[in-house]
């Protein structure tokens, strides 16, 4: 009974604190930090109120986190001035019906898997990048996967061009949509048929431009794409453990306020499709998790996110897993 009273007390304190107005200093600092510029003073007031409302929700959630009732922490980031509906409209990956892949991965029988994997420790994961205002996570996830698998094959980490995919896989016969979303399997199809330039020769601009691929600046080739057996978290775990990082496209609606920990709140049908790279997995305080590489700069856990593993295919995490063969 005493523990319950303590929990209610903590939540009440957080809610009481959350009722304070956002100061001018805090609001101006937020806008400066995330380079926020609003067209009118009325929009500025609206965004400030949304920021306040979101922050109140985060603080209430974090009261539950402090009381041990949640496994992840929420906080202010570049999306705090957006409503949840606006954030859900920011899908940077197209929903998939059929994945175009050359093969399907099924884990072999009697496979003994390690309890945890982190490919960063093998230096097989490139650095965190930022996609900016362009909905191009599909390109960043694809490039990150190719970089990792090429490293695992050759021992060389060669940074590749997301802009190459943004520009060139959005032209017929390819079906990506530039800064308006795309898919990993279509991006891998482009690289399989053309190659991909190095990042140093074809830098990221954050907007779709004319295709400028040059064969003399090619940095990698893809021999095939592989779909991990769908909706099968064990198959995904086996692929990550024995082959390497795997791209996933899932409902990222809880990414808006994510700061740290293991997200495991159920997703609704209103979906924000987002593509990331699974670079490992493990267990923390009895909760199984997937370790995901994102492309939003220092967001989350230094650019990474952990989400629930072995929890009914959390938010579709194992619905569309794909990796390249170099």
UniProtKB/TrEMBL annotation:
Coiled-coil stretches noted in the UniProt entry, renumbered to this chain: none
Span of domain Peptidase C1A papain C-terminal: 113-325
Lipoprotein as UniProt keyword: no
Cathepsin propeptide inhibitor domain location: 27-87
SUPFAM superfamilies xrefs: Cysteine proteinases
Span of the signal peptide: 1-18
Pfam families xref list: Inhibitor_I29, Peptidase_C1
Keywords: Signal
Residue stretches spanning the membrane: none
The organism's place on the tree of life at top rank: Eukaryota
Gene3D superfamilies in UniProt: 1.10.287.2250, Cysteine proteinases (3.90.70.10)
Protein family membership: Belongs to the peptidase C1 family.
The name this protein goes by in its record: Cathepsin L-like
Organism name: Drosophila arizonae
